[in-house]
Structures are given as structure tokens and as C-alpha cells.
Backbone:
């Protein structure tokens, strides 16, 4: 394997495959539930620790891929094993390694088939890290589809009452959308292969994203063909994000998933869609992205409003937060298709923010559900007096999610709207998005109020006890990060600045398509 | 007396080696069977025979030798497909080993019969002449008719055998008639010579779309299409698959298909490249219909054997894409697909065998309930098989589908590639249902049903799982081997 970083070892491969090693070790720890839990927590923390050198050795001024490593995997097809990372994927990788130990720790109460549960979470981590790091379309697709398998079992085996319906819907919805991306990948790889062979260049990089970015204009594709290719990728990512109107798998999956599953789903899995839009839709098809920025922004804005309204209408707390994800992820798509530095920065930052705050909300709901076994908002009330520590954390996460200045959500949403306003998307859409911010305050405060204030009913919410030390320890790192991002956002935007500036320039300089060419 | 000399025909043992050795070995096993009733001896002997046959292919691997007046050929493609068929046969014997006596089918003839069938397949794969193709098809079919009815005290097995025999007889009739028509028009039976003859037609301005020639080609393809259960010649498949003893079903679903497809590949690409636009169009429609029909009807099945039967029809459609691509990429993708499908389908049937009780011919989906709790390893293996059949990474099923769609797209059969991925999604629905049933639904039965994961069967399942993951993660090993497969065009 060829390695280009200064660390002297292939750190990205190590980070990607360490979780899988942990999962294999767990397979040999059957029957030792307690030990397995501690091992999984320790191992995922180790993965996080191993991923930290990436942050500390990341060169802020370099626009291209860093820590680049590759070997010729399937030379006959032009497929390489290639991992690399830039300012866009840096924080998403760290978010994944950061959230996974917390999710594992939150699953302390999973009594049934504990080992399998923990193994699946580690495998899920591997798949997600692979998605953020793969720089070859074939490799990317393998990781992309692989992430379906652990989540499918997590929801299907440890989920709620309608878990089978939810998990099959989740799998088929995403699988159906992804196979069109496969066609797109095959078409691009073949075109590139032919082009490289024609130019007398080595064909082993036919599926490489960088080579494709450089060559795609030389393939002689017509406007329609480019648009179809763009769509084949976009649909897969839109379902994952999820963008209105292909969001319907999300509420079902979220509501039925076990807490740790919901956390991973909300915090990381959805971000794969946003990441894919930037990495593939925008980088490979800058002209189409520009041309279709407004229609896509329209879908995003509809999603923002629609998600918000539906969220307000929910009586189930988990469903309420699930629909709030639809609304919040709309902002991210809006930021991406602003296609300027500010918007893209806001979108990437907001992916992290949403991961932290919604992850925390799902954790909190899971914690209270474990005690009361009800998620009906109507059953709750007056928790201020009974479980104050829980309510403090709930207030904090709610405020972060609403976008209170000083906390993380505000920075991201502000940047996105600034970017969208300043782009061809224009002020009308931005104004509607701003309405979404207000609505977010309405439905999230409705939820908070319903839980925290009002009369307390011992009958409907029995056995309430305040958060344990373990639960506080899970939530604290999330909340600290929300505050830090809110106050020192520049530390987080700084590493992605160079990459995003380069991307903005790349999109702006993309040769405009001549109709009928 | 000196003027009477017996001229021995020139026998090229390299060319004939694989099928001939296996045939002779099968007869030996048949004789040994008369003196011993120890199944272990028969199994061991059979496996040794398969191993030696595979080794015979390795001796001259890479060289292309034609023999017997160019009626048979020894080339990379032939050897590669033969290896896959031999591996499939070995797996079949392993998973059948404990099943047959459990079903009271302890006749030792089972082993030589399977070897006879395989020998016919190897012969078919190496055939480059219409006559040898016919011999190959018949050799394998006759052994298979007997094997289908092997559980003959069971009503369904007898029914399946008769059905297969009657329809197979029709197909053989079509084959002979087609051969006769082609011979009548071109005066040749050798595939390469037919191609030469047709190119002389072209140079002299004689029309290629002669109705009698086209009918001949069509009849041969009907017969081969029957063997691979291509729509609309698939109707026998579900009934025969359901009725035959499960290991035989498993064997038929992979080996027969593989051999017949290999023959189809040679027939179309070597003899009729001149008619390529015609057969690509016509068979493109058949391939699309096969993929769609197999997958859509499989959704409605509750009987597992029938579901796998329809799924095997669908997979024939995918393999057909590799045949139709008619390119180096297509041939290479076809062999990878055949390997992946062989491992996966045999594995899936092996799990069914492990669950099949005596006298319980019908196998319902609901019987899999709670398998994840009862025998998690078996359920895990079945999960791998189902994901591989659906084509989900990182399994062999995905890598091979990728290769097939890539070859199809490259050959401008883009509409087939798109139909292929759409039908893959449909297939995911019913493969997932198996997984859901195993892991997420509990059994209603009060007493646990036994499972028969014996040593030999487990070995077969483990080999299949490891093979699937290996081909899925490192397809390069096999694509390197299957690289630059060019079908021999002898003079």
C-alpha cells in the first residue's frame, strides 16, 4: 500500500478497520455480557483516540486530499482501494468516532444478545468511516451499501413494535435509490477507462474521484446525459439526507430504532447524504449543480417547512424529533446548493451541529423512555420538579437545536442563510428558510414545555428517577462540544476553509455547458 | 492378413482429459459401490476424482489446444468454467452426504450419477461442434432425469422426473432439429466453420437472414434456453426444483445452468457473430423478461424451494447479460458471476437441507422462524447467502453483478443494465423476507424442530461463506484469472 502521510503508517485504513477488528474480538466474547460492554466502549474510545492524530496533523493550508493511501485493488476494472481526507470529511470522520463510544455507552441496558448489538454498532462505524474516506467510486459504493446491513439488524432486532415494517422500509428505500447510483458509477468508470486508455494513460484509476473530476468534461457527454448521471447520484443522496419528498422512511426508522441506533442514524448516517452531495454531485457535476441549485433549494425549503409543521403535529416525542431532522437536514441541502464558501461551510458545520444536538435529544428521549415506557407528550409534565438534571440537559439540547445564539446551531444556520441569500438561490427561499427557524423554536419549545412544566402525573410517568452518573457522562461531552462550537466556531471552520474555497473556485470556474453540445 | 490394419483415431488426451477422466472415475465409483455400502468411501473417492479432474485442467492451463477434428477444445474459458462446475459438484456431494440416508435414499448410485452428469457438463463446456454439444447436453440430461426421480417413493419426485424427462425430450428434439437446419444451410457442424461459411455468404452477397438458418439458430437456442431456464422456456423449473431431492435441485440450479450457458456463449459468439445484432436484440428482450419474471414471481412465493427456483430463473437472466455482451468483459463477468452464483445458491440450498426433516417435502418460509435463536450460525450463513443473492456488498453477489452490469453497459446494452438493477431491488424484497423471518420473527412451534448441520454439510456451508466473502472483497483474484478470456476460433 502506498502511503503519503507524514505519520509513517496508514492511519486512515487503521481507523476504518479497527472497529471491525473489535467486532471480531467481540464474537469470541459470547456469554460475557458485562465484559463485552466494557470492551466495546473501550475499543470504540480507542478508535476515537487513534483518529485524533488526523486532526492534529491536518494541514490547514492544503486544499487537496491528505493522508492519501492507495493500492491497486481490481486493476482489471480500474478500481483502486483509495482513502483520503480533506476539510469536508475531516469533521465528519471525527464526529463518527466521537459519537460511536457515546452510543455504545448509552446502550448499557440492552440485555438481549448484547454481543451482537455491540458488534453491529462497531461494524456500522466501520461502514460510515469508509463512506467518508473512500476516494474511489467502487470502494465508496461498497461502504455506502454496507452501512445498510448493520442498521437493518439494529432496527429489526432491537427496535419497537413496528420494527420489521420500519427496517424493511428503510432498507428497500435506500437500496432502491442506491442502485441507480451504481449505474451512474458504472457508466462514469467505463467512460473514464476508455478515455484514459485512449490517452495512453494507466487505466487503474478509472473509478478515482480526482481523475473523474479532471476528465469528466473530456468524455463528450451531452447535457442530458450529464443530467441523468447527476440524478443517479443525487437521488441516492436525497433519500439518505432525507430530502422532501423522499423522507418517509426516516420517521419510521427513527421511531422504531433502539436509542443507540437512533443516535447513530441521526448523528452520522444522514450526514452521508449531505457529504455525498458535496463530494459527488457538486464536485463531479458543477455545471448541473449550478443549473439545478434553485429547484433543489426549493425541495430543501419545502422540506424545512413541511418537516417543521409535521413535527409540531406529533404527539410522540421521538417522532417529533425525527421530523425535526427532516426540517434541519433541509437547511444543510440549502447550504450545499448555495455553492459558495459561506453556504458550504455552514452546511458542513451544521452537519456536525445537527449530529450533536439531535443525537443528544435522542439520547435524552431514550433515557426517559427507559424509565417511563411512554413517549406520548401528553403523558408528560412537570419534570422540572422531579428530575431537574434531566431537564437541564433537555433544555440545553433543545436550545442548541432551536439555534440559540451562543450555541452551535445558531452558527450553522446563520452561515447557511447568509450563503443562500448571497447566491442565485436568492432571498425568497432564504426568507422561507428563516420561517423554518422560527417554527423550530415553536415545535421544540412545545416539546420542552410539555415535558418540563405543567402538572406531574405519577401514574402516567411512573418510576422516574434522575439521570445516573453514566448518563450524565454520556451527555456532558456532547453539550460541552455544542457550547464550544457556538463560542469558537472559527476553530471548526478553519480546517475546512481552504478546501471549501478551492471547491467554490472550482464550481465558479466550471466551463458553462453549451446547449446541445 | 497384412492389408487389414486398424487405424486408431488420434486421441488428444489433453483436450479430452477432464471429461474422460471423470467419466472413467465415475464408472470406478459405480463398481466400488457394488462391494461396499460405506458412504464415506464413495464420497471420498468421488471427491478425489473431482480433485484429480481439476488438476488435469491446471496442467496445461493457459494454452489453447483443439482436438478431435476441432470438435473439442481445451482453452482457458473451458477450464475455468469446468473448475467452477467441479467445485459446485464437490459442494453438492458434501451437502448431500447426510441428507440422502436421512431421507431413506441411501443408494450409492447417487455419487456416480452426479459424476456422470458433471462429466457430460465438462464435455459440453469444451464442445466446439454442434454434434459434441448435443452429446454433452444428452449425457448430462440423462443422468439428471434419474437424479430428479431419485426420491421416487415420494410422489413429487416422480412427478418432477417425468415432467423434466418429457420436456427435456422436447428440448432435445428442438436441439437436433436446429442442428439439422443449420447443417442443411451451411453444410457444417463445426462452430468456427459455420462462421467461416457465413462470412463467405457475406462476401458473395448472400443474405444472412435466411429463414431456415434463423429457425435453426432459434431452435438450438430454445433447447439451451430450456436448460438454463430462460423465460419463456422456464415453466418446468419450479415444479422440478420443488420435487427433486434438495441436493439435486441445488446441483441442477447451478451446474446445468453453467454448462448450458457456456455452450450458448460459444454457439453465439463463435458460430454466429455475423448475426450479433439480431440475437442481441431478441435475447435482450428474453433476458429482460427473465430477470423481471423470475424476480416478480418470486415475491409471491411462500415455499422456499419454489422461491429459490424463481430466483434461479432471475439469475439466469443476469448471466444472460454476460453472454449477450459478447465481449471479453462479458465472458470474464459471466465466469465471475457463475462462480459467485454457484457458491451462493449451493450454500442457500445447504441451509434448507440442514432444516429438512424426513417426509417433509414442502418447505415453507415460516419454518425459518426463530432460526436466529435456534442455530445462529446457520442463520448467519443464510443471511450471507441472501445478501449475496440480492447483490449487497461486500459479498460475491455484488462484485459479480457489478461485473455483469459493467459488461452490459459497455456493450451498449444499457437498458438491460438498468432493468437489471431495478429487478435487483425487487429481489432484495424477498431475500430480505427470509432474513426477517429468521432473525426477527419468533417461532410458533412449541417443540423445537431439529436441525441437521452435520460435519460434511457444515464444511460445505463454511466453504461457501468464505468463498463468497473472498470473491466479494478480493474479486481481483478471480478477475485476474478470468482476464483476457477469448473464445477459441479454430479454423
Residues:
Amino acid at each position: 500500500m502506498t502511503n503519503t502521510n507524514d505519520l509513517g503508517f496508514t492511519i486512515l485504513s487503521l481507523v476504518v478497520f479497527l472497529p471491525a477488528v473489535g467486532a471480531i474480538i467481540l464474537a469470541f466474547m459470547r456469554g460475557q455480557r458485562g465484559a463485552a460492554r466494557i470492551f466495546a466502549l473501550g475499543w470504540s474510545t480507542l478508535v476515537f483516540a487513534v483518529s485524533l492524530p488526523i486532526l492534529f496533523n491536518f494541514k490547514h493550508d492544503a486544499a487537496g486530499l491528505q493522508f492519501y493511501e492507495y493500492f491497486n485493488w481490481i486493476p482489471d476494472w480500474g478500481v483502486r482501494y483509495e482513502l483520503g481526507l480533506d476539510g469536508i470529511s475531516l469533521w465528519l470522520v471525527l464526529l463518527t468516532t466521537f459519537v460511536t463510544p457515546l452510543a455504545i455507552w448509552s446502550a448499557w441496558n440492552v440485555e438481549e444478545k448484547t454481543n451482537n448489538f455491540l458488534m453491529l454498532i462497531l461494524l456500522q462505524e466501520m461502514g460510515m468511516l469508509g463512506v467518508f474516506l473512500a476516494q474511489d467510486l467502487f470502494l465508496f459504493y461498497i461502504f455506502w451499501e454496507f452501512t445498510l446491513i448493520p442498521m437493518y439488524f439494529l432496527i429489526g432486532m432491537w427496535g419497537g413494535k413496528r420494527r420489521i415494517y420500519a427496517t424493511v422500509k428503510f432498507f428497500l428505500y435506500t437500496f432502491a435509490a442506491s442502485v441507480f447510483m451504481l449505474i451512474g458509477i458504472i457508466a462514469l468508470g467505463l467512460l473514464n477507462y476508455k478515455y484514459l486508455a485512449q490517452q495512453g494513460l494507466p487505466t487503474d484509476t478509472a473509478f478515482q474521484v480526482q481523475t473523474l473530476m479532471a476528465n469528466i468534461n473530456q468524455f463528450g457527454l451531452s447535457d442530458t446525459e450529464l443530467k441523468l448521471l447527476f440524478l443517479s447520484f443525487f437521488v441516492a443522496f436525497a433519500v439518505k439526507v432525507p430530502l422532501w419528498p423522499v423522507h418517509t422512511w426516516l420517521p419510521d426508522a427513527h421511531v422504531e430504532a433502539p436509542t443507540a441506533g437512533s443516535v447513530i442514524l441521526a448523528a452520522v448516517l444522514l450526514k452521508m447524504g449531505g457529504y455525498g452531495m458535496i463530494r459527488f454531485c457538486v464536485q463531479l457535476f458543477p455545471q448541473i449543480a449550478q443549473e439545478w441549485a434553485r429547484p433543489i433549494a426549493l425541495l430543501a425549503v419545502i422540506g424545512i417547512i413541511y418537516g417543521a409543521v409535521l413535527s409540531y403535529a406529533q404527539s410522540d416525542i421521538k417522532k417529533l424529533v425525527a421530523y425535526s431532522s427532516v426540517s434541519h437536514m433541509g437547511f444543510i441541502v440549502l447550504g450545499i446548493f448555495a455553492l459558495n464558501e459561506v453556504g458550504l461551510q455552514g452546511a458542513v458545520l451544521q452537519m456536525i451541529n445537527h449530529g450533536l444536538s439531535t443525537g443528544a435529544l435522542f439520547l435524552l428521549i431514550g433515557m426517559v423512555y427507559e424509565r417511563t415506557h411512554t413517549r406520548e407528550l401528553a403523558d408528560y409534565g412537570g419534570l422540572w420538579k422531579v428530575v431537574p438534571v434531566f431537564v437541564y440537559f433537555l433544555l440545553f439540547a433543545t436550545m442548541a437545536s432551536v439555534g440559540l445564539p451562543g450555541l452551535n446551531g445558531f452558527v450553522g444556520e446563520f452561515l447557511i442563510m447568509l450563503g443562500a441569500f448571497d447566491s442565485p438561490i436568492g432571498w425568497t427561499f432564504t426568507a422561507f428558510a428563516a420561517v423554518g427557524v422560527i417554527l423550530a423554536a415553536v415545535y421544540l419549545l412545545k416539546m420542552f414545555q410539555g415535558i418540563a412544566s405543567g402538572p406531574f402525573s405519577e401514574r402516567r410517568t411512573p418510576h422516574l428517577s434522575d439521570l445516573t452518573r453514566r448518563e450524565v457522562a454520556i451527555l456532558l461531552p456532547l453539550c460541552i462540544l455544542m457550547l464550544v462550537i457556538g463560542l469558537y466556531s472559527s476553530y471548526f471552520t478553519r480546517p475546512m476553509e481552504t478546501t471549501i474555497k478551492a471547491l467554490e473556485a472550482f464550481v465558479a470556474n466550471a466551463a458553462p455547458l453549451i446547449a446541445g453540445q | 492378413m497384412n492389408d487389414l490394419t486398424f487405424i486408431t483415431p488420434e486421441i488428444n488426451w489433453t483436450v479430452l482429459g477432464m471429461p474422460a477422466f471423470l467419466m472413467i472415475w465415475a464408472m470406478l465409483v459405480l463398481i466400488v459401490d457394488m462391494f461396499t455400502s460405506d458412504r464415506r468411501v464413495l464420497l471420498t473417492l468421488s471427491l478425489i476424482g473431482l480433485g484429480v479432474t481439476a488438476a488435469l485442467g491446471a496442467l496445461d492451463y493457459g494454452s489453447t489446444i483443439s482436438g478431435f477434428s476441432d470438435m473439442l477444445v481445451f482453452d482457458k474459458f473451458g477450464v475455468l468454467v469446468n473448475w467452477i462446475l467441479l467445485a459446485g459438484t464437490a459442494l453438492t456431494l458434501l451437502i448431500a452426504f447426510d441428507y440422502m440416508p436421512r431421507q431413506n435414499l441411501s443408494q450409492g448410485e447417487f455419487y456416480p450419477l452426479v459424476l456422470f452428469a458433471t462429466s457430460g457438463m465438462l464435455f459440453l463446456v469444451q464442445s466446439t461442434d454442434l454434434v459434441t454439444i448435443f452429446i454433452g447436453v444428452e449425457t448430462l440430461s440423462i443422468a439428471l432425469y434419474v437424479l430428479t426421480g431419485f426420491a421416487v417413493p415420494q410422489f413429487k419426485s416422480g412427478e418432477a422426473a417425468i415432467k423434466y424427462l418429457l420436456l427435456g425430450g422436447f428440448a432435445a428434439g428442438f436441439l437436433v432439429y436446429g442442428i439439422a437446419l443449420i447443417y442443411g444451410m451451411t453444410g457444417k457442424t463445426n462452430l468456427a466453420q459455420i462462421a467461416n461459411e457465413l462470412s463467405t455468404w457475406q462476401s458473395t452477397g448472400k443474405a444472412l437472414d435466411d429463414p431456415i438458418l434463423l429457425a435453426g439458430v432459434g431452435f438450438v437456442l430454445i433447447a439451451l434456453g430450456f436448460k438454463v431456464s430462460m423465460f419463456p422456456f422456464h415453466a418446468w423449473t419450479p415444479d422440478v426444483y420443488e420435487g427433486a431431492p434438495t441436493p439435486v435441485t441445488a446441483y441442477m440450479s447451478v451446474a446445468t445452468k453453467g454448462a448450458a450457458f457456456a455452450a450458448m456463449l460459444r454457439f453465439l459468439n463463435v458460430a454466429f457473430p455475423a448475426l450479433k445484432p439480431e440475437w442481441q436484440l431478441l435475447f435482450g428482450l428474453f433476458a429482460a423478461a427473465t430477470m423481471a419474471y423470475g424476480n416478480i414471481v418470486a415475491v409471491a412465493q411462500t415455499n422456499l424451494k419454489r422461491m429459490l427456483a424463481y430466483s434461479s430463473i432471475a439469475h439466469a437472466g443476469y448471466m444472460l447479460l454476460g453472454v449477450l455482451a459478447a465481449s471479453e468483459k462479458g465472458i470474464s463477468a459471466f465466469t465471475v458471476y457463475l462462480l459467485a452464483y454457484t457458491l451462493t445458491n449451493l450454500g442457500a440450498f445447504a441451509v434448507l437441507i440442514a432444516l429438512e426433516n424426513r417426509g417433509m417435502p414442502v418447505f415453507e418460509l415460516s419454518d425459518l422462524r426463530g432460526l436466529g435463536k435456534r442455530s445462529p450460525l446457520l442463520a448467519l450463513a443464510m443471511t450471507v447467502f441472501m445478501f449475496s443473492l440480492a447483490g449487497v456488498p461486500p459479498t460475491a453477489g455484488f462484485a459479480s453483478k457489478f461485473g455483469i452490469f459493467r459488461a452490459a453497459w459497455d456493450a451498449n446494452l444499457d437498458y438491460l443494465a438498468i432493468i437489471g438493477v431495478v429487478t435487483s431491488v425487487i429481489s432484495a424484497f424477498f431475500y430480505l423476507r427470509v432474513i426477517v423471518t429468521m432473525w426477527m420473527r419468533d417461532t410458533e412451534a412449541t417443540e423445537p424442530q431439529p436441525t441437521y448441520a452435520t460435519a460434511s454439510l457444515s464444511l460445505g456451508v463454511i466453504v461457501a461463506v468464505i468463498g463468497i466473502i473472498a470473491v466479494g472483497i478480493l474479486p481481483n483474484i478471480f478477475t485476474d484469472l478470468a482476464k483476457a478470456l477469448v473464445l477459441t476460433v479454430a479454423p
Summary: Chain B touches chain A at residues 332, 387, 392-394, 398, 402-403, 405-406, 409-410, 414, 417-418, 421-422, 424-425, 428-429, 432-433, 436, 439-441, 475-476, 479-480, 483 (CB under 8 Å). The longest strand of chain B covers residues 65-67. The mean pLDDT of chain B is 86.
